[in-house]
Write a structure and sequence with these properties.
Two copies of one chain form a homodimer. Chain A is an all-alpha fold. Chain A is built from twelve helices and no strands. Chain B binds a DNA duplex through α1.
DNA sequence: AGCATAGGTATACACTGTAAGTTTGTCAAG
DNA sequence: CTTGACAAACTTACAGTGTATACCTATGCT
């Protein structure tokens, strides 16, 4: 190993002047994920990521093919965050915990939803497929055939994605609604008398929404998630039992 | 009406040289939606939209505040595409048709999902809230109180969004998967012998996915949507009946 | 010792949203 | 008919984006 002596020489140099450690694809992708989580998707630019790891923008291209590839890496990294629940239990408990864990991952990295939504490409690498393998395995143990198993997977997976998306994005659930002017639903809920918002939302056109306003504002996301998950799992189990 | 005579004069001029009709906010938003549907979200640039309506980019700013505002308009326009099913039927049929209709809208304009996902702002104008009002009204007729009604709305709404998102984006369901190399699932399903892809996906690590591959490729989206919708609606109705 | 090469930098280009300034077309009043 | 006002178009300009190309330089192998 002739490299050894060389190594010693550079190590000595390192001590006196701490050379900046070599960039790796992992460090780049890591930085991108952190920026995405902390500052949003728009903040993830090549120059911003480069600054984060202490190089110029073009240096990144030695470790990722292009920005697409970088974002692929971010998606894969998020999937690696999935922590597999123990499986030595009834299938329905495994499925429920798996669903909860997937929700946790999505809520910890809410921007991957937008990432998936507009990139519209499948997961490709082995590690990203493992959570799917996990889910299919749990579903299979319910005594569901492969064909229906795929349906069950897509239905539950879709449910989780959609509910979390409505949870993190405001869309309908909370935040501000206006009809010409601004209206803060949370403020509405905070004991503002009914007449205060009646002038913003036309009560005669939207009576059900008006009636639902307090509940929209206070609605507990955890409880709601479990509500829908219970409906799906109970229905699936009933079908599986009926089948057998 | 002194303008009348003037009007006649310009009308004559119009006939001989068809002056380009004045731009309106509606024409601008319309063009943006068409571009988004036909060429994707990235294609919706101010210059591209301007070209579509026959003006320069900066002219658009007389009709929309900024690009945010333009995209708000696009979202509102999509919501206006919702066609309200008749309501003189049992609530569950109204709800089912409403869900189907929402899915149709999302599939006709799949890019609004990405739009919602990364803009994360609520619907604001009256017309965009009408489908929500419609849904809450239908749910209310099931004898569900306002509090649980909101949960039901969010669960079903989330389900639709998520399933359609998985349907239009590839993500897990179909398309290409690779493990270093490329693998076309549809090609796999097209009678390629099992050994052909066993070398791409490590069968020992992903047995359930391997087993599910043919069903992933062939799975009928309509059938799958109805499957999950039935589970949710049946569960909700059971609860409503039990409550009464 | 020499040298290929991996990994950093610098420069440049086409494209984005949009601020600021200028021109043009339309209509009402003098 | 002229004049003026005003809305709506256009022109130009700028900072910021992804990335192609070229250049440099330090590392490690022969």
């Amino acid at each position: 190993m002739p490299a050894r002596t060389r190594k010693r020489k550079s190590d000595a140099a390192v001590v006196e002047a701490p050379v900046k450690e070599r960039l790796t694809r992992e460090r780049v992708v890591d930085a991108a994920l952190h920026i995405m989580d902390a500052e949003g998707l728009d903040a993830v630019t090549m120059r911003r990521v480069a600054r984060e790891v202490g190089v110029e923008a073009m240096s990144l291209y030695h470790h990722v093919r292009d920005k697409e590839d970088l974002l692929d890496g971010v998606c894969a990294l998020v999937m690696r965050d999935f922590r597999y629940p123990p499986e030595d239990r009834p299938w329905i408990e495994v499925a429920r915990d798996g669903a909860r864990e997937w929700r946790r991952v999505l809520r910890d990295h809410p921007n991957v939803i937008a990432l998936w939504a507009d990139r519209q490409r499948p997961m490709t690498d082995l590690e990203s497929l493992m959570p799917m393998e996990f889910a299919l395995r749990a579903i299979g143990r319910a005594g569901i055939d492969a064909r229906e198993g795929v349906q069950v997977f897509n239905v539950i997976g879709g449910y989780i994605m959609g509910v979390v998306m409505m949870e993190v994005g405001a869309m309908f659930s909370a935040g501000t609604m206006r009809n010409g002017k601004a209206l803060d639903l949370n403020a509405v809920h905070a004991k503002i008398p009914d007449e205060a918002f009646a002038q913003f939302l036309p009560a005669d056109r939207l009576p059900c929404i008006i009636a639902a306003l307090p509940h929209l504002a206070e609605c507990d996301p955890d409880e709601q998630f479990e509500f829908g998950l219970d409906l799906l799992l109970a229905g699936i189990e009933a079908r599986a039992i009926a089948r057998a």
